Amino acid sequence: MDVIAYTASPRTTLESKKDVGYIVPGTGDPDGLIPSAWYSGMDKSSLHNFLKQDIDVLLIAVPLTPATTHFLGAEELAILGKRNAFIVNIARGAILKQDDLISALKKPIKEGGLRGAALDVTDPEPLPKESELWDLENVVVTPHISGLGTHYVDRSFDILEKNLSNLETGKKLLNVVSRGKGY
């Protein structure tokens, strides 16, 4: 499983996959524990080098910013199609060019099509009734609920408790929003 700029949300998934032998490349880890390999950069060349790795499943978990809007289009999906990758998007729908995604999902596997996609987010959201995504057998669409795991509330309170302690002692806060960066 490969990850584009993951945050705490998919981290648990990655840890469990690494524990059972998956190689987990990615583009960021605040603690330096995961992934197994590093790739960084927002330019097309860096992105394409990352996507050319042996990717079976790509988990997208980046914030939507001007730099990440339509970050993955036909060119990137063609690279992923060479390995018939499966895409999981739990970030924002506009990170993928949805028409290009539909084309890559409709393309036969033998011709470099994607194996499938699990989309917790779409563009637009909610997904219109007439969208082709509803009719594709290799697509699962969920109603933007990926963040609501069984430990969500506990993790949220742990972060709140840690931040209150950090605030009181003058330490750096966790998960600070940067309006300048857009997330």
UniProtKB/TrEMBL annotation:
SUPFAM superfamilies: NAD(P)-binding Rossmann-fold domains
Record-linked InterPro entries: D-isomer_DH_NAD-bd, NAD(P)-bd_dom_sf
GO MF annotation: an example: oxidoreductase activity
Keywords: NAD, Oxidoreductase
The UniProt record lists the keyword Oxidoreductase: yes
RNA-binding among keywords: no
All copies of domain D-isomer specific 2-hydroxyacid dehydrogenase NAD-binding, residue ranges: 41-146
Protein name according to UniProt: Related to glycerate dehydrogenase
Organism of this sequence: Rhynchosporium agropyri
